[in-house]
Design a protein that fits this description.
By secondary structure, the chain is of the alpha+beta class. It contains two helices and three strands.
């Protein structure tokens, strides 16, 4: 999923979360349902359902935060290199 599109898709009712109740030995879980459409005709297709967990989302967020920190550090160093070259 392209997380940057989440709010837009949610506002257009193209995705939603559904809590699935526990059943027997299967514990309660959450499903992300996404509406699917034929790109050629616009006809509605069967919705896509994906089991999703809070832990997975939190891990993904942490990974992106770490990536952002690495990129920010690289940008600082690139800025220093540009300053040094301009000073020549």
């Amino acid at each position: 999923m392209d997380y940057a599109k989440y709010s837009d898709l949610k506002s257009k009712s193209k995705l939603s979360f559904k809590k699935i109740a526990a059943s027997g030995e299967i514990p309660e879980y959450v499903v992300l349902e996404t509406k699917q459409y034929d790109p050629n005709t616009g006809e509605a297709l069967t919705d896509s359902s994906k089991k999703i967990s809070l832990e997975d989302l939190e891990n993904t967020k942490a990974m992106h935060i770490a990536d952002k920190a690495k990129i920010d550090a690289q940008l600082v160093e690139i800025g220093k290199m540009i300053t040094d070259i301009k000073a020549l």
